[in-house]
Amino acid sequence: MYLLFDNGKKDYNIKKEVEAKNENLILANKELDRFVYSASHDLRSPITSLKGLIEITQMEDNLEQIREYLNLMKLSLIKQDQFISDIIDYSKNKRKGVVLENISLINLFEGAIIQHTHIENADRIIVDIEILVDVIKSDSLRLKIIINNLLSNAIKYADENKQEMRIFIKTYIEGNFYKIEVIDNGIGIKPEFKEHIFEMFYVIDSNKGSGLGLYILKEAVKSLNGSIEVESEFTVGSKFVVTIPRL
User: Fold this and answer.
1) Are the C-beta atoms of residues 166 and 125 closer than 8 Å to each other?
2) Rounded distance, CA 119 to CA 186, Å?
3) What's this model's pTM, rounded to 2 decimal places?
4) Which residues are within 8 A (CB) of 141 and not within 5 positions of it... i.e. 6 or more apart?
5) d(Cα 56, Cα 221) in Å, to the nearest integer?
6) pLDDT over 70 (residue 174)
């Protein structure tokens, strides 16, 4: 009698497990379909733009105008290069398992700052860093994705109208968690946009990104069993706080 009960319970658990896996598979397929559709559009868009600019340049004799067209081509290529980099990060975060190792946060931030020097206004922004915890045990790939996207976002949405454009970076320990803060005095986020910024391909300004950066950032944080919070006031600035469990 007990054996029948145990078998029935086991069959029920297997059924629920299969149903859960099927639901996850359906969600994954929907996400993949949406990703492929949007990615193919965003990959073609810069190519179409480049083809048009090349055709116009071929008919132009004015040297200054040609230089302007070349600069537009360069910006288009930079945008596409960033988008391809985002796709690679997305794929790595989805496929690679978490590998724990000792990582220097200051090295990651310094590397990210150098990596983003090509972004408009990056050379005009004052970056202050307060590292209260440097070496932590975590996953190098995910931390690079997190830090690169936090910094990239802060630079892209800097406020050119302010006398000083600033970014403040802080790392510290709070209880059983590592905290990474990136605070800027950029253009900020309107309240109606705030709840959507971590959605795949959601963009406030299509000229500043693909809409993948913050989505991948949140997915990387989730992979580390962490969380991310955002405080922002339009025209004042934004504060992103990443919380990661200490291991």
Assistant:
1) yes
2) 15
3) 0.71
4) 92, 93, 96, 99
5) 44
6) yes
